[in-house]
Amino acid sequence: MNSDRVRHLTNLFRDQRILVVGDVMLDRYIHGTVDRISPEAPVPVVRVARERQVPGGAANVASNIRALGGQAIMAGAVGDDAAGRELRAAMEAGGIGTQALRTMAGVCTTVKTRIVADRQQLVRVDWENGAPFPPDAVAALCADIERTIAGCTGVVIEDYSKGLVRQEVIDATLSAARRKGIPVGLDPKDNRELRIRGITLATPNYKEAHVCAGLAPRPAPPGDPLQDASLRKAAEALLREWMPDLLIVTLGPQGMYLAAKDRPPRVIPTRAREVFDVSGAGDTVIATCVLALAAGAAFDEAAVLGNNAAGVVVGKLGTATCSPDELLRSVEANEL
Question: Which of 17, 79, 153, 321 could pair covalently with 107 via S-S, beta carbons 3.0-4.6 A apart?
Fold first, then answer.
């Protein structure tokens, strides 16, 4: 894939309107330095230098779409709490549409707070939603999704196992997208119970691919992915069950494993030059791939762009995004 083709596709990104359906959260970062151990317990004392917060989870997918120049709308749920209001405000400040983002009573907005010192994450503190999503609010969200998809050119379903991505949400999203004839990408977690069929693209990681295929979880490929019988078995099962046009299993430092019906699997090597933080890399892959497909990219082109974009963000600390210029520079560097 050459730089002229990348420029052509990224110029078309601005015309794409992508709906992101999934679990949103607020990512908070406390940055500081450590120069002593606490006298109260054998733990480091962090002297705080700055704090920041960014949209996380499925909202990070929407942020990646915006960073690449596309239009993004978020369909999900936040609680009627301070964190929910902060998250909504952060999305709107980033240019993400929130007309399909519902505030649900009795729901706690998911917040992940990371304490970082000298580019090293020391601890993460999570506030999780323990209450079920109200059925009437979920039904209203499904109606929002169906209505919003009518004006979109692509859809991402982003599952972080927080309870929002359930069967009725999947069904409403897929049926509306089929009527519109637009690509749908799925970034799954480990929800084996969901019935999913007819998506365009799926991007599980190595462990998720095994769990979703009903196999024992495996943390990482043991060697050459093309010689990994377990990975091939998982991919074949997911191709039968989900019927995607393309399955991309992300392999971290070993790149991507691409599988499609009636084609032999192949591997794209990683494009990361240096790795500081892999959190959110999967968000970048699905955002870039669906945006590229909506812009008219071939499947292999979308995979190459997603791989390069992920290589950019893992070189940054924390929840991060990739710009069109960074994507172009990555492709150009890998042409050499």
Answer: 79
